[in-house]
Amino acid sequence: MNPKPAPSPVLRARGLVKRYGHVTALDGADFDLYPGEVLAVIGDNGAGKSSLIKALTGALQPDEGEMWLDGARVAFRSPLDARGHGIETVYQDLAVAASLDIASNMFLGRELRRPGVLGSVFRKLDTKRMRTESAAHMSELKIGLRSLTQSVETLSGGQRQGVAVARAVAWSRHVVVMDEPTAALGVKESAQVLDMIRRVRERGLPVVLISHNMPHVFEIADRIHVQRLGRRVAQILPRDHSMAEVVSIMTGALEVSSEPGSGTVVTDTNAARAAGLTPRPTD
Amino acid sequence: MSTTTAPAPSKPPSQAAQDPPAWKRFVHTPTAGPVLALLVASTFFSFQSDQFLSGGNLALVIQQIMVVGTLALGQTLIILTAGIDLSCGAIMAFGSIVMAKLAAEGVLPPLVAIAAGIGVCALLGAANGALVTFVKLPPFIVTLGMLNIAFALTHIYSDEQTVTQLPGELTVLGDTFPMGSTDISYGSVLTIVLFLVFAYVLGQTAWGKHVYALGNSPEVARLTGIRTARLRMTIFTVAGVIYGIAALLLVARTGVGDPKAGQTDNLDSITAVVLGGTSLFGGRGLVLGTLLGALIVGVFRNGLQLMGVGSIYQMLITGVLVIAAVAFDQISRRKQRS
Prior knowledge:
Order of helices and strands of chain A: EEEHEEHEHHHHEHEHEEHEEH
Structural class of chain A: alpha/beta
Strand order of the largest sheet of chain B: 1-2
Number of domains of chain B: 1
CATH architecture of the largest domain in chain A: 3-Layer(aba) Sandwich
Number of strands of chain A: 12
Strand content of chain B: under 5%
Strand content of chain A: 15-25%
CATH superfamily of the largest domain in chain A: P-loop containing nucleotide triphosphate hydrolases
CATH architecture of chain B: Orthogonal Bundle
Largest interface: A-B, 44 and 41 residues
Number of helices of chain B: 14
Helix content of chain B: 55-70%
Shape of chain A: globular
Radius of gyration of chain B: 21 Å
CATH topology of chain B: ABC transporter involved in vitamin B12 uptake, BtuC
CATH class of the largest domain in chain A: Alpha Beta
Oligomer: heterodimer
Order of helices and strands of chain B: HHHHHHHEEHHHHHHH
């Protein structure tokens, strides 16, 4: 339906397998992320969503399968390794060190030192420069803050998430992964985070968004990756499907052909009805 | 790792200009309470006793707190990681016996004996660290065990005997030099310098930021790429080295190697840390707060002494003070949150 020339994916994975004893978390999962898009990854609990994300960000090492970043084969040994390759992750509630200020958090683990002897011998941090750069990054994402010297624990949940997003964006060269970034937030703060995701996209960085929140997914995602039973069962465009249909695909009531926009096949009429769909006999 | 930079900012910073003034920020730091307490106590005692504010008396207060204060510095590092060290006093006692005995018996040259004593403390600190980091035992239990081990080692190695007739190198820190009309001990100066060094390290270096991040949440620290196992090991080992320096100060102050020394110093050091506004939950606090905490204990003991209050009542008041300080901290924090 969309015969545009397919750009090559920024991040690609084929046949990822991860077993824990007799439990198979990933069962030959594929993954494609294209330049400049917001890709939502959705799936029921136990669908292998978080295992997939962990594999992509180096937090777990798949037993089988291959990954490519910008066309080059990669295998991440650790989250640090993935970060070294320009993949930054924002974790739901593990984002910031509460008692440190914003600039310290932005540069945590990658601090800037003063030039000259002060930096090399006395290891003195360049606090001023870190504050200036932090302020610039925060304002670029339009995250309004009164002060950069206050500790992060005095900020609201949305602002805190803003610090985490700003840090990821500042350091990411290829991909920003956000794991349930709005799960702990209120309505207004969630809207702020979605706004931030839009600005990240405007900067040209692709975003992988893991979310349970269908309205958020439909509001922001360019494409949706549906994970089910350890593998990718569908890649769909939000405009081609209703929310109820997507939920049905997630739960296995509907199946979608691998061609984008080519419609769905009902495999479980009762489940589809329960999800609020009135299945047509043929599609 | 610190040579990489984030992409250069394009817009001028707009928020930084609106930071509150320094004094307002200070009021919200955990050090504000201890400063206030110290000022109030000093004012009170200066009205009670003419001697209190004399240079000689203040030098005496610092002299009295230098050992516990130095122990409390190492304790602060561990408490900042949400740990606790019950073994610091016992480790110090063992280190002091090792250096005193090796030097007095002429087994090693005095300076090497001092290094050996400090090294033993570093080793026991590292052993605490390894058990907490790699065996993942709670610091309370590990250091409780180490308290007993170090206590026993001290008594076995010393054969319950006080070591006397120490070479001059071991007691030089107890000597004084005149400053105006006041005699200041070299040990007091060393203690203050140690505090300043660690205030700098914690406040101005990446290592310091990582200590706080580890105390806030080990998981956050790990995910931002900090090598948390190595960091925790380093912290416990550095604390051990500091206990070794405290051992040297102890020997210098008393002039002997005393196997019975330091038995309540573990709790006294925790008292100083807590009075200094450092949170027992980790990640919040300042070493200069600990210095203030040690000074508060010292000032109270000294002031009450000058007023003729018995030592058992001094203990009573110190106990009330600790509970009051923690209660004050908790309540003010709850108010700030809500």
